[in-house]
Amino acid sequence: MDEVKAAVRRLIEENFFIGAGGIALADGDSFLDHHVLDSTGFLELIGHLEEAYGIKVKDDEMIPENLDSLDNVARFVARKRGA
Amino acid sequence: MSTPFIPGPHVFHLDWVAEADRIAKWIVDVLARRLHRRGLVVAISGGIDSSVCAALAVRAVGANKVFGLLMPERDSSAFSTGRGRELAAHLGIAHEIFDIAPTLEALGCYRHRDQAIRRVFPTYGDGWKNKIVIAGGLKGGINYFKLVVAGPDGTQQEARLPLKEYLQIVAATNFKQRIRKTMDYFHADRLNYAVVGTPNRLEYELGFFVKLGDGAADIKPIAHLYKTQVYAMARSLGLPEDICNAQPTTDTYSLAQGQDEFYFALPHAQMDLALWSSNHDVPAPVLGAALGLNESQARRVYDDISAKRRAAIYLHAAAETLGADKEENHLNAPVCTVGRTGGC
């Protein structure tokens, strides 16, 4: 799970300039509430998850409980890979 | 005990004649004092917004100083040009019909779009139609876009759009608004006129326009009016019945596509109430009561409005500089909208 969190954190920091903006993102912070990801940002995140972990994110899985924080993403990926 | 205030269509009521006169006076004032142009170019789509803008332009400066442009392309509805012609005749303005399809073809608009579509639906080709629809957000999920295609026999298929394909389709279709704007400014320069932008308040505030496309203009006379108010204004101005009843569409994709499918996620009357409520700090449960939604659904509507406002910042922004536009603020003057006369 830590490996997924680190990879997603790197993706966000590199692609969305989060580090440059001085925003410190905790593992449980909501991407939406902190304005880290918009709708295209989530599409980018999903593309990364599908490519890096060989999973397929279904339409009904595009919910905040699965994707809206580093913790949620890590749990979601672990569940999908274990399924 | 007083009845709690629930926003409804009544909040949009204005004295329409007085408002039309106020806008017309403002247009003349801006042309004379700020823009120093002799008339107005209006791109006419056959929809309600551009029709009302053209009518207000005529009210302001007279029919002989308004030039209408109808610019259909391959995916335009036949109704658009028909209603545009009807409006030009009704208003008595000079106009030109210019088919932008060959220009779009030369630029690769259709080719780039279709390449991206075929990466999702490999059999897509001649005789097929397409549109993009928004999904997810108001059901409690995260907003995403679906590509819908219909084969020559009318059978529809849909799939979620990956980011790269979504961006390429939008980038390609944005050529349409940007080429139209290029033509607007050709005629504006030729005639020494200003260009009218036609967004209503929903579009202007929430960013439903193409940067340097339909978002570019010298004057935006209905950017302060909610869509409901634009319809009421159309009736007050005596526009033809089929224009007054025109439903909002994007007229950009080949399958029929309402604006609420593509961007707003709610029909315009509800979206108007939601935006008005957001602008007047109406609590989410009260908005919910007005729209027939529960509190969490109403909160999601407000969240969606906030997200769209954030996205609109980029669309409205002029080029950033390291202070070059701060010393003389007129160098980077905003587009003129009603209510911002002093600042533009």
Could you say which overall geometry of chain A the principal axes of the C-alpha atoms support? globular
Beta content of chain A: under 5%
Fourth CATH level, the homologous superfamily of chain B: HUPs
Average pLDDT for all residues of chain A: 88
CATH third-tier fold name of chain B: Rossmann fold
Distance N to C terminus of chain B: 46 Å
- What's the CATH architecture of chain B? 3-Layer(aba) Sandwich
Distance between the termini of chain A: 15 Å
- Compressed to H and E, one letter per element, the order of chain B equals HEHEHEHHEEEHEHEHHHHHHE
Number of helices of chain A: 4
CATH class of chain B: Alpha Beta
- What percent of residues of chain B are in strands? 5-15%
According to DSSP, the number of beta strands of chain B is 9
Classify the helix fraction of chain B into a percent range: 40-55%
Structural class of chain A: mainly alpha
Radius of gyration of chain A: 12 Å
Give the SSE string of chain A.
Answer: HHHH
Low-confidence stretches of chain B: none
Q: Please give the oligomerization state of what you see.
A: heterodimer
Q: Which strand order do you get reading across the main beta sheet of chain B?
A: 3-2-1-7
